[in-house]
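Human: For the file, kindly provide a plain-text protein record giving the amino acid sequence and the backbone structure tokens, at your earliest convenience.
Assistant:
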Amino acid sequence: GEAGALQVSESLGAMANGEGKDAEDAIRIDFSGLARPLRDLPAAKVEQRAEQFLTELKQLTAEAQKLAPNLKAMERLGDVKVRLDKLKDEFDTARRDAKRAADAFNDVRKKRFDRFMAAFDHIKAHVSAIYGELTRTRDGLGVALLILESQDEPYLHGIKYNAMPPLKRFREIEQLSGGEKTLAALALMFAIHSFRPSPFIVLDEVDAALDNVNVAKAAAYLQKRSSGAIARDAAVAQREGAAGAVAPTDAAVSALQCIVISLKDQFYEKSDGLIGVYRDQQEECSRTLTFDLRRYADAPSALAPTTPSPAAFPLITPATGSTEQSTALRASTTPTPTPTPDQSAGSKRDRTPAA
């Protein structure tokens, strides 16, 4: 304590003044501040304990020298805090931007999913009805199905299309005949067209793989669609409250304009008009003949060979693309030329669109 320190100080002062042994005897050291194990330490171990303390002191001194404390650490700490605050602000800004981008992406993905499912549900609901009309027989109708391979992200996976013709068991579409595949493809095409209708459709020899029976079915369906008969039937079914009836304004049953390039007579006789392409041997170019069949819709016997009016056969010169009347057609007294068998609309060298 302070009294012991004062006593030691006085003793040291007496020794300094040369008072000799009496001064040394006057020194009294107060050990009350030490821990009890050290106060009770035997005199024989005091020097050993002192050496241990000195060794530890040297070790601590060496470690302190190795630390080499930086006196400018506090200044650098301030700079680091400023940079940390700046980085934190940038991180918060980037996180907000990432959240906005994720929300925008999710909105686009939802719109994509909704639009895809709207198209798929519409096509799925109409493809079977259209396929049934294309394959209609006295014994029943065909059935067509669309199945998604993934419900979560259907646009990233496939769609299975299966068609079952009337009176036949279910099989994969790959196992159907060429004609059956063609009718299934036509049904799917008309179903897709009904979702985003175009003014008209061009069919280029879709009957190539069809036999006469299926050609007649396809031609009959196109005739009913173009004449509005299916739309009228839908209106009747809607008035009668039939189950599954579609509105007559639905694009899947509404009137359809179609240009068919074909070599089959079944398409010719059910069309509203013919455009024949033949070879002009003198000019060595192709020419066209047009014939409106709507005038003979109520008089089938009138289809016998007659001499049509000149306006019924405008000729088109492919080289210039201009439409002109031939000299023979301008003269009312000159008979209208009739195409030879090689020049006919159904020849193997030229194809005839039946509109």
About this structure: The first strand starts at residue 143 and ends at 148.
